[in-house]
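Hi R.,

Here are the chain sequences for the assembly we discussed:
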Amino acid sequence: MDISIHYMVSILLMMTGLYTVVVKKNLIKIIIGIAILMHGVNLFFIASGYTIGGTAPIMTPGEVVAQVPLANPLPQGLIVITLRLFPVLMALMAATAFRIYQYYGTFNLEKIKELKE
Amino acid sequence: MFLILLTAIIAVHIKDNLSAIIAIGGTGISLTVMYILLHAPDIAATQAVIEIVSLCMLAVLVLKTTREGEGTSTRAITGFGILFLGGLVLGIMYILPNLNFGAPLFDMVGAGHYLEYGVKETGAINLVTAIIMDYRGFDTLLEVIVILIGVIGATTILRRYR
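And here is the predicted structure of the full complex:
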């Protein structure tokens, strides 16, 4: 595995999410775009912690200092913390979108804008 | 690897809302496999769980409301948006070769201490657990409070009025 194909894929994921949030008009598509954006950021961090020839940062019992190089545990710990907030974000956005649909009867942002005036 | 990108792009461009959500599930599952290949089993487990949970919520949202993705057509600023994003992608691709994959980006500066003394100080052989439960225990505690606030907010929005 040579250079940074993981970085490229994560950057492209982020760009796909950003494109969706900016360009699409459907509310569900915007929620999906935010999800893709978060996945891209997470993949970038995890790829940055990878060490060639290493293993997962779990030691065998009784071992105090690792014999082989380990993957960097710091970004993994941070990403676990942000990853657990992901379903909360989804729940909030889904609830808001559900209320908006009940009120306006559509997910289309332009129609909602017309109905408001 | 490219399954991630493929399913993400399918999810963005498909007409039907339910199919889009199923496609984003494909992205999450292939990301789980990717995390295992990147030596991050904790992240993989968490990713699988949260993907299932959030997918269920989105599926309930779509099934309760409507399936047809009216308004999947794009906005008027599409041309400008594509140009902007293309420029951004090209710029980042220009920077990318300087980031050496495998040689860690953060240079193990912060993590060196954890790698060297983590087991001695905490007694946990899983270093990720040692970090999130011991060194950054208050982070995890306050994060649980944030989750609680989020759940309270969602139930408040969904509560029946009157």
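Chain A touches chain B through 86 residues (CB under 8 Å). Chain A has a mean pLDDT of 81.

Let me know if anything looks off.

Best,
T.
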